[in-house]
Model the fold of this input.
Amino acid sequence: MKLNKIFKWGMVALILISVAILVWSFASGNSEQSVEVLLYWTYCMLGLAAASWVIIGLIVGAKNDPKSLVRIGIAILGIAALCLVAWLLAKGDPAVGYTGIPVTAGTLKLTDTILNLTYIVGGAAIVAIIVGEVRMSIASKK
Done:
């Protein structure tokens, strides 16, 4: 019961901080500094969500079914392998026609990696939808 209160108040605190940063950003006219703060807060929230998913998954999995830890480990390795493949496929070439502030090679490689991940995951989602619909239509005919 006490743990639920901690989660509840933690969530309320994160929501209040998010709203405060958002209001501050709009009040400051979306200055470069406020956009940067918003992006860093987004990174923190995504990192917190990913860490929570892994840690809570490990705790609940170990408590309910110790064999599920193997599945979680395989899922984490699969995600790491997918990221590695996307990174290996990333060229890191500069954007054509870009005349703004020079960008480092590492940043170019990272943005290409993220684009590759988006393409791979988006394509996998489309294939999963099609395969799922085909399987459902075959199963309903039987």
User: Anything to note?
Assistant: Helices lie at 2-27, 32-64, 68-89, 105-141. The mean pLDDT is 88. Residues 17 and 129 are 37 Å apart (CA to CA). DSSP finds four helices and no strands in the chain.
